[in-house]
Amino acid sequence: MSVVVKSPCVVTYLKRITETLTVIELQPLKRLPKYKPGQFLHLTLDYYDPAKNWPESRVFSIANYDPEVKTLRIIYSVKGKYTKLMNDNLQENQQVWVKMPYGDFTFNSITDNMIFIAGGTGITPFLSYLESIKYKIPDKNIWLFYGAKEKNCMVGEELIDNIVLVNPRFKVKKYLEYKSGNERYEMGKLEADKILEELQSIGEADFYISGPPEMIQYFKQSIIDAGIKQEFIHIDAWE
């Protein structure tokens, strides 16, 4: 198990994809420990004094951490008071603090098939895993079902599409709630019944679900109702 490290970081890149969806990259000023794809961190805008308690913060899945180039990436959408505060105040060259890594939403599948179900910024832990396999063919079959409101809210598409091109064991379906006019996307929300029907011939599989809490609960219950044991269901439930 990795030891948790607290470090100041400088915001080196900030891109607002929409008014409420942002990608940021941080440069840690201390070397951070190795993490497992799927884990998360705590981020605070306040200065951290080691002699005092950790200040108010927010939890975010890690999209990627490259220790060689000292880049830590997260993706967030405005969902409450703290992310609104970040949206209103966070700027490039600003210093923030993080502590990491945390979490057990890691991809230790016990079957030969991994099913990734992602809603909105719930794609983040899966991007972390995909970054780790982009130069190799994994020993598992992977299906990604990814839903977003509209095309410009669908982050990580370049990485996803590049892996599809080189990895025959990786299959993807992308869903948009609003019409795109592009046949590469399914229209509408992610639907458990349709996904389970599509997967019924593959045999045993591990299901990984990440997204808004109500989406996670909907898919978890639907998968249980389909007769799949809870040991094969993994949820990113830190929200």
Automatic annotation (TrEMBL):
Entry GO MF terms: 2 iron, 2 sulfur cluster binding; flavin adenine dinucleotide binding; metal ion binding; nitric oxide dioxygenase NAD(P)H activity
E.C. code: 1.14.12.17
Gene3D superfamilies named in the record: Nucleotide-binding domain of ferredoxin-NADP reductase (FNR) module, Translation factors
Residue ranges of every copy of the FAD-binding FR-type domain listed in the record: 4-108
Keyword Phosphoprotein: no
Cofactor(s) recorded in Swiss-Prot or TrEMBL: FAD
Lineage top rank: taxon: Bacteria
Keywords attached to this entry: 2Fe-2S, Dioxygenase, FAD, Flavoprotein, Iron, Iron-sulfur, Metal-binding, Oxidoreductase
InterPro entries registered for this protein in UniProt: FAD-bd_FR_type, Flavoprot_Pyr_Nucl_cyt_Rdtase, FNR_nucleotide-bd, MRET, OxRdtase_FAD/NAD-bd, Riboflavin_synthase-like_b-brl
Protein name: Nitric oxide dioxygenase
Organism: Cloacimonas acidaminovorans (strain Evry)
